[in-house]
Write a structure and sequence with these properties.
This protein is of the alpha+beta class. 44% of the residues lie in helices and 14% in strands. The strands form two sheets. The chain has a six-stranded antiparallel β-sheet with strand order 8-5-7-6-10-9, sandwiched between helices. It has a four-stranded mixed β-sheet with strand order 2-1-3-4, covered by helices on one side. The protein is globular.
Length: 436
């Protein structure tokens, strides 16, 4: 009987994907435990597994293994015939050197260059420019190595190719336009060869190459984030003072705003510089989308919340769409790989959450999985945020008519059901989530 191995990790994360791809090449089955929220890693139960509360983490019958490269090496050793560690001591050492190179040289540069584009960390043009220079140096080194080689080590895919190749996926998707790719022709040839291999494609989906470098996503300025925080412990807010006084039967006195409560005031110059997005420039709508999203998220009875939606929905300012991903050959066979495709799409739309509400994920069963979803968003067409997605052309978009009873029923089925096994639009739910 095969030992049960459980991987704790985030969806569509380069580190998680390296482990999943290694398992695929080693023909090892991994059970998934999704840790998408940082709070999930700080629970007492999880901290017993990993005292630092970090992911990824692999649970084995013998105990726990952390750090991506260590987990990948463990999986590779379970299937020596796969050749992931190279052939012989010398190649094994070469694989190790590239794993160390990836962790200590390439990944830190990736974080500084790509994370601002994904909206994970604030943008700093100087830091990004420096990261780009460092990346060029690293890829020039790899380009020379790959001048006469198909793979980094030996004559087949090894952990070296998996680690470095997956670390460059978002670089090729978001940063490297045709001119940049042409600068490192050997690395580009090697990269394109890898991502078209069946197991790579099944794990990370189709990689659409960058045509124009993406710009960093905008994040709330620090003072805005501070202003939205709850008052610090020991400092009562105005609302709390009024509530306490009212409960005692007294007329609440006006409390002087504390420093913590005072909202940060943007300077006129800052407001002028703040770039408006196209969706912010649309004519005002009577449909308070934020209030409805709050109501929907907190409602135990989603169908009851949808009654409010239909009463308030503004078809001139918002639209409803059914999205369906057009699979490539070999996709939609394994659930965890199909979930990777669905969640990768959502992750790259983090900056769009303000304007949308959706249920999106995997439907189907028995190796016949589909990536689908129901979306409500600002505007009546396809927003630029959707068009900018590298998989945009691989989706079909069907607009739902709010005046059509069948369409309304289908929208409600999507929006009100997330329990696995529930039938929606003819297919059982496999793994879906709300985007809000």
């Amino acid at each position: 009987m095969e030992a049960k191995l459980t991987l704790y990790g985030a969806l569509f994360n380069p580190k998680t994907n390296k482990i999943l791809l290694t398992a695929a090449y080693a023909n090892v089955t991994l059970h998934r435990q999704i840790m998408q929220n940082i709070k999930d890693t700080k629970t007492p139960e999880y901290l017993k597994k990993h005292g630092l509360g970090k992911i990824p983490l692999l649970e084995t019958p013998a105990g726990y293994i952390f750090e991506t490269n260590s987990i990948c090496r463990y999986l590779a050793r379970l299937q020596p015939s796969a050749g992931l560690l190279g052939n012989g001591e010398f190649e094994a050492s070469q694989v190790d050197q590239y794993l160390d190179f990836c962790a200590t040289e390439l990944e830190p540069v990736y974080v500084r260059l790509v994370y601002p584009i994904l909206g994970i960390r604030p943008a700093d043009p100087e830091v990004q420019a420096k990261a780009r220079e460092e990346l060029n140096v690293l890829l020039k080194f790899l380009d020379e190595r790959l001048r006469i080689s198909t793979y980094l080590v030996g004559n087949q895919v090894t952990l070296a190719d998996i680690a470095i190749g997956l670390s460059l996926v978002e670089v090729y998707r978001l940063v490297f336009d045709a001119a940049a790719r042409n600068t490192f022709q050997n690395v580009t040839r090697w990269f394109l060869h890898l991502v078209h291999l069946p197991l790579f494609a099944q794990t990370i989906g189709r990689v659409t190459l960058c045509t124009s470098p993406w710009q960093p996503a905008s994040l709330p300025p620090p003072q805005q984030a501070q202003a939205s925080e709850a008052p610090k412990k020991g400092v009562a807010s105005t609302a709390e003072v009024k509530k306490a006084a009212t409960e005692k039967g007294k007329k609440p006195a006006e409390a002087a705003p504390s420093k913590q409560e005072k909202p940060a005031q943007a300077q006129p110059e800052e407001e002028e510089k703040k770039e408006k997005k196209p969706l912010d420039l649309l004519p005002p709508s009577g449909f308070n989308f934020y209030d409805f999203k709050t109501l929907f998220a907190n409602s135990a009875d989603k169908r009851e919340a949808m009654k409010t939606f239909w009463q308030q929905f503004d078809p001139a300012g918002f639209s409803i769409w059914l999205l369906h991903y057009k699979k490539a050959e070999g996709e939609g066979v394994k659930l965890f790989l199909t979930s990777n495709l669905a969640n990768g799409f959502l992750q790259r739309l983090d900056h769009f959450r303000k304007y949308a509400l959706a249920v999106h994920g995997v439907y189907g069963q028995d190796g016949k999985y589909e990536v689908k979803g129901c979306w409500i968003w600002r505007g009546t067409g396809h927003p630029q945020e959707i068009k900018d997605q590298d998989t945009y052309e691989y989706h079909t978009f069907t607009q739902a008519d709010p005046n059509n009873a069948e369409h309304r029923a289908l929208v409600e089925d999507y929006m009100c059901n997330t329990e696995p096994g529930t039938i929606v639009d003819g297919l059982p739910i496999a793994e879906v989530s709300y985007f809000k």
